[in-house]
Amino acid sequence: MESEYGNLSWEIFVYSTFAIVAICLILYTFFSLKIRRHSIHNMNEEGFFDKANEENNSFYSSEGNHCENK
Fold first, then answer.
1. Three-class SS state of 1
2. What value does the mean pLDDT of the chain take?
3. Which residues, 6+ apart, have CB-to-CB distance to 34 below 8 Å?
4. DSSP H/E element including 57
5. What's the pLDDT tens digit per position in 3-24?
6. Confidence (pLDDT) at 1
7. What is the pTM of this model?
8. Alpha-carbon span 27 to 34, nearest angstrom
9. Whole-angstrom Cα distance, residue 13 to residue 5?
10. Which domain holds residue 32?
11. What is the number of structural domains in the chain?
12. At 46, is the pLDDT very low, low, confident or very high (cuts 50, 70, 90)?
């Protein structure tokens, strides 16, 4: 009878630990994605991506003109 009780308590400990770890991973993933999405939204409102796109477009257009001149 003791061995059955010992196995049962061990199973409860192991499965509850798995459940706690799974819940923590799900919450971590959810909050990290939420924070990332919020940061990208703020960067977009500040015009960060517009500035980067202008710099990239000017680089490619100058590079393209350089190739056409050859």
1. coil
2. 80
3. none
4. helix 48-69
5. 556 688 889 999 999 999 999 9
6. 44
7. 0.57
8. 10
9. 12
10. 2-69
11. 1
12. confident
